[in-house]
Specification:
mainly alpha, 6% strand
Length: 438
């Protein structure tokens, strides 16, 4: 392996691990804020009890997410110095805004919220978690704007051998960025909903704190149901935008090799690993891809053979990741509809509760597959159409990157086991007795 591949693997390991914790942080912050608001409106101590219980899960995820997020940013200097030098004026400014405008607000008020039980009034405490929820999601927004610029670079000029920011407003308002933000946040809320449902199902099967966990389950179910269907609609809009912004990725998603009108989608297909244009297919849906990309069945969709071979992404990985991600999205819709039909008879729905517990890895897998589609499908570019990945790597020895990659894997394995053990232990214990004041 060369330095480029090892650096990519190291960044992928850090990203996948980091995103095991970020989605739950984003979604739980909102659910906890809603719980505290319901406590204020209904004066029901059980909602405050729920906020305390789920708040500890939130804090575990927040701490691990912060630690792993810092190591991600360091890699832009250690492993991707060429990238930082070339586009640092643009990418660096977006990360700086994320830190100063969002992360500082989030970290300040999370301390206020965590230490403010029985010290703040109920209204002040609820306000603090709403500010945490706002800042957490704002932080994600700025990071996704930065990533979207790598996928669809706009608002820049080339000067002195570097890309420099020329139109900040264009960068933060481009359609691709906002579609990415909506898609990623919706995925985070789906994961949160399923996590809360699974943890609640564990106790409902044992008929422990049934009232508490029925309320929790329904809140998680409502979030998962809304955003599972929202994700399907938004994904269609995202696919149409790819036809304009990243046509090679769109072609790879469906293994479309030849440019053609009435371009089909195949329900089941397997592209050749050698990128030679061969494909095993079944279940042809005529014109479906043309409709997805251009909303016109007669309009041609550009195939991979019309792009230079060196500009094509790895088709097999991109294709399979996308297929599995979409399949999981459909499963989420089915499971949440099933749950909505059983929402008033949860304790009697033994089979459904067991299915939900076993389904908890699926939204985590879907998030990982989404990042695989986004990042592998962009290759061989680190900034699409502007800078190739091989030109962005730092001039460091292969052995150095290999050593840190092994260290990352070992450290993250230990950290991940500890974090999920703490969460599982807390869930198994159940909630503390309800208290009537903050």
């Amino acid at each position: 392996m060369d330095t480029v591949l090892l650096s990519r693997l190291q960044f992928a390991v850090a990203t996948y691990f980091h995103f095991l914790f970020v989605p739950l942080t984003l979604g739980l912050s909102i659910l906890i804020a809603i719980m505290e608001t319901l406590y204020l409106r209904r004066n029901d101590p059980q909602y405050l009890q729920m906020a305390r219980f789920w708040g500890r899960i939130f804090l575990i995820n927040f701490v691990v997410g912060v630690v792993t997020g810092i190591t991600l940013e360091f890699q832009f200097g250690t492993n991707w110095a060429g990238y930082s030098k070339y586009v640092g004026d643009i990418f660096g400014s977006l990360l700086a805004i994320e830190a100063t405008a969002a992360f500082f607000l989030e970290s300040t008020f999370i301390a206020v919220w965590a230490l403010g039980w029985n010290r703040l009034s109920a209204k002040a405490h609820a306000l603090s978690i709403w500010l945490v929820a706002f800042a957490s999601n704002l932080s994600a927004l700025w990071i996704l704007v930065a990533n979207s610029w790598m996928q669809s670079p706009v608002g820049y000029v080339l000067r002195g051998g570097r890309a420099e920011l020329s139109d900040f407003l264009e960068v933060v308002t481009q359609k691709y960025a906002w579609l990415t933000i909506l898609h990623t946040l919706a995925a985070a809320y789906i994961l949160t909903g399923f996590f809360v449902m699974a943890a609640s199902a564990y106790h409902l099967l044992r008929r422990q704190n049934s009232g508490f966990f029925t309320k929790s389950f329904r809140m998680g179910l409502t979030m998962a149901l809304i955003f599972s269907f929202f994700e399907i609609v938004e994904g269609h809009l995202h696919g149409a935008d790819l036809a304009e912004k990243q046509p090679t990725k769109l072609a790879a998603l469906e293994a479309l090799w030849e440019t053609q009108p009435r371009a089909p989608i195949y329900i089941v297909a397997l592209p050749s690993p050698s990128n030679d244009g061969n494909i095993v297919e079944w279940g042809r849906i005529p014109s479906a891809m043309s409709l997805l990309a251009h909303h016109d069945p007669e309009k041609p969709v550009k195939g991979l053979l019309d792009f230079p071979k060196e500009d094509r992404p790895p088709v097999l990985i991109t294709f399979l990741s996308f297929r599995l991600m979409v399949t999981l999205g459909i499963i989420f819709c089915i499971l949440t509809l099933w749950g909505w039909a059983r929402r008033n008879r949860l304790t009697e729905s033994q089979l459904y509760l067991r299915v939900i517990i076993w389904a908890i890895p699926l939204p985590y897998l879907a998030c990982a597959l989404g990042w695989t589609v986004a990042e592998v499908g962009r290759q061989p570019w680190i900034v699409y159409g502007l800078m190739r990945t091989k030109d962005a790597v730092s001039p460091v020895a292969t052995s150095q990157v290999g050593g840190t990659l092994v260290a990352f894997i070992l450290l993250y394995t230990v950290l991940g086991i500890l974090a999920f053990w703490l969460m599982a232990r807390h869930i198994a214990r159940g909630p503390e007795p309800a208290q009537a004041e903050v």
